[in-house]
């Protein structure tokens, strides 16, 4: 697969900020300029309704990022000022994964709101960057400012954060 046009770039709440990649239909989201690969068992496009639906092993990929879910629905902006292919919202249904070379986010579903520059993961959210892990019930990220909020499961957010885990660092070798 190529890479995603829908969800995430570097960060992990404190360390994770989500930034969407962009391409023709997804272009307003971020700086991704590569081709967008869309795959699914079935694809339905309804130009009158301004909706694309990917069903069955659905994935969208761009520039090294992949968004996967059983079902992905994309709605497009309509009316004055909207150009063909401008995304309004992207909805995933079922267990959703967003994967890049450095981050992995999992949730029961996700919603990307292009005009608001936000992406939200809902239900059993797990965000991983390197060894650091963040868990909660809802993760909301602003794709422009990288500001984020995690809501806790059972009232608490859970995190294990490994500071100073740069590329190629040997963080576990300091102890002897």
TrEMBL record:
Swiss-Prot/TrEMBL GO biological process terms? lipopolysaccharide transport
* Signal sequence annotation: 1-27
GO molecular function annotations of the record: glycolipid transfer activity
InterPro entries in UniProt: LPS_export_LptA (IPR052037), OstA-like_N (IPR005653)
Domain Organic solvent tolerance-like N-terminal, chain residue ranges per copy: 37-145
Signal recorded as keyword: yes
User: What keywords are assigned to this protein?
Assistant: Signal
User: Under which name does UniProt file this protein?
Assistant: Lipopolysaccharide export system protein LptA
Species per Swiss-Prot/TrEMBL record: Candidatus Phycosocius bacilliformis
């Amino acid at each position: 697969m190529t890479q995603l046009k829908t969800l995430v770039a570097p960060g992990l709440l404190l360390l994770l900020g989500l930034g969407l990649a962009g391409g023709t239909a997804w272009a307003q989201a971020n700086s991704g300029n590569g081709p967008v690969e869309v795959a699914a068992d079935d694809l339905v496009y309804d130009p009158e309704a301004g909706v694309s639906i990917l069903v069955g092993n659905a994935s969208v990929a761009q520039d090294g990022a992949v968004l996967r879910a059983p079902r992905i629905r994309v709605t497009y902006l309509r009316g004055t000022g909207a150009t063909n292919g401008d995304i309004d919202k992207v909805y995933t249904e079922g267990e959703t994964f967003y994967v890049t070379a450095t981050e992995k986010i999992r949730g029961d579903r996700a919603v990307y709101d292009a005009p608001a520059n936000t992406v939200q993961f809902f239900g059993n959210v797990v965000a991983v960057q390197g060894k650091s892990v963040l868990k909660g019930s809802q993760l909301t990220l602003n794709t422009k400012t990288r500001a984020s909020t995690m809501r806790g499961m059972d009232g608490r957010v859970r995190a294990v954060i490994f500071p100073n885990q740069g590329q190629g660092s040997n963080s576990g070798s300091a102890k002897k």
